[in-house]
Structures are given as structure tokens and as C-alpha cells.
Amino acid sequence: MSRKWPDFAVLELLVGVDDHGSLGAASRLAGMAQPNASRAVKQLERQFGMTLLQRSPTGSTLTPQGTVIAHWARRVLSDTRRLLDVADGLRAERTAELTVAASMTVAEHLMPAWLGQFRSLYPDVTIHLQVHNSTQVFDRVAGRTCDVGFVESPSVPRPLKSLTVARDRLVVVVHPTHPWARRRKALSVAELAMTPLLAREPGSGTRTTLDVALQEYDRAAPLLELGSAAAIRTSVLAGVGPAVMSTLAVAEQVEAGELKVIDVEGLDLDRVLRAAWRGPRQLEGPAGELVRLVRRVGTDR
């Protein structure tokens, strides 16, 4: 006698009721309208010939039979997810594609060398690079529109996994004619906080690192908010105002004397660069190989 397979979506609903205590919460998490969820459960009850939910004016909970079915549904869904992961892995091996998202500082100053070395080792992998600020990179990693992201943000939102792959430092830079360039005494943190600066937009790793470092101080509004390190560097070179920038972005200009680094007493702007991804703790496939390569080479250029 042939039997009809249950719909996986309704099994997810039962597990959701078991986890969250109501069909309403389970349907919201599943992205399903509650009337549709209720109809789906009733159809499963008819198929199984038993009552799975105890319905009342205050909500729905699992019956003892429903609790048993939810337990087995959880196992079925877990195995199904593994099946989908295997299929994804086989598809990735066949297509050999890698989509990487990187924050602007990483993309401009480090990613070309990293991807160049990766390409020499894995010439058959097609690489797609997306460039965003750190917050947008996290969004794309969480939404699975990229395989791995590289950011300079101080923290990584859950449930994303991350690894430190390199280190960087922010410095205060000014045009050589700026009054700070003639100071003999280091700048205080309070002075820096009270000064309007050329700044990246909210959501960028550089902006977030500075905001965290100065969070206990009264802050001046930004002199200008610009969307890239290159735009800020150009503005500082033009004498528009001071900025806090990655050493990666200003090393050549500082060495040439076109920009001057200003010491700030008691301010630590060292930061880590991280790889972030969604999925298993151990990143595998081309994305995993890229992360391992990046950890080996760090910020060497």
C-alpha cells in the first residue's frame, strides 16, 4: 500500500509549535499566514488520522501525539537539511564559483592580492567580488547572496561565524599645512572627539571602529560624510579637514610627505580584519580555501 509523503513545510510548523509554544509564532517564523498554517496542520491530521494540535481560544499547543510526531519531524528535517547541503556542495564542485563580499577598505587595498594568489592556485574557480560597507557585507552574508565576507568591523552579528584573518590600524591624518601638523604635543582624545572630521558613512567598519573608541566623549558632527576611503583621502589631500583612516589607505601618501599622521594620546585604534560566513563552523570548499590563504598572507602586499 502506497502512502503519501507529508509536506516538509507542515513538519516545520509542528517543530515550530514545539519550540515556540504556539502555531501563530511557528507560522510567523515559517513566513506563512496563520490561516494557511492552520489548514496545513488540519490536512496533516486527516492524513495521519490523529489530532496533533490542542486548539483553544488562547492558542494552539501540541497534543501528546503531536509531540511525538514533532520529535520525528525534527529528525526528518535535520536529515533533509544535510541532503540539501550535500546537493549544494556537489553543485559548487561542478560550477566552481565563489562569490566574495568585502568592505571597501579590504576590497581596495587587500583583496586584489588575495584573489590574485587564490586565482593562481585555483584557476578553474570563477570569482565574483561584491564591494560594500561592513554592515552591507553582513547583510549579504546573512542572506546567503555571497559565500564569505571580509570586513573590518569590531564585531560580527550572530549567528554568523567569523575568523580573524589580518590586523589593521586607524590613524589621524591631516594635510601638512593643517595646524595640527605643527603641534609638538600629542592630541588628546577629547580634542579629537570635539573636532569635525571627514568621515565614512554609518555602517562602514572605519566609522564603527571610531564611534566605539569615542563613545564616552561628546562628539562633533562630521565635517563631511563620504562613501569611500579614496574620497576621504582626496579631501584630506585637498586640505578640507582631518580624518581618521586605515594605514592601508594612506601609507603611500604618508611616506611621500603628502599627509601627516597625528599622534593621539591614549587612543587605541588597532583593529582586526575578519572573514564572516553563515553555515557550519568549519568553512569548506573554495570559500574555505580562500580564508585559509588569507590567514596565511595577512596584510602582506
Automatic annotation (TrEMBL):
PANTHER family listed in its UniProt record: HTH-TYPE TRANSCRIPTIONAL REGULATOR, HTH-TYPE TRANSCRIPTIONAL REGULATOR CYSL
Taxonomic path: Bacteria, Bacillati, Actinomycetota, Actinomycetes, Mycobacteriales
UniProt similarity note: Belongs to the LysR transcriptional regulatory family.
Entries under SUPFAM superfamilies matching the protein: Periplasmic binding protein-like II (SSF53850), Winged helix' DNA-binding domain (SSF46785)
Protein name (record): LysR family transcriptional regulator
Coiled coil regions in record: none
UniProt KW Transcription keyword: yes
Gene Ontology terms for molecular function: DNA-binding transcription factor activity; transcription cis-regulatory region binding
Species of provenance: Rhodococcus oxybenzonivorans
UniProt keyword annotation of Hydrolase present: no
One Pfam entry name: LysR_substrate
Keyword entries, A-Z: DNA-binding, Transcription, Transcription regulation
Domain HTH lysR-type: 6-63
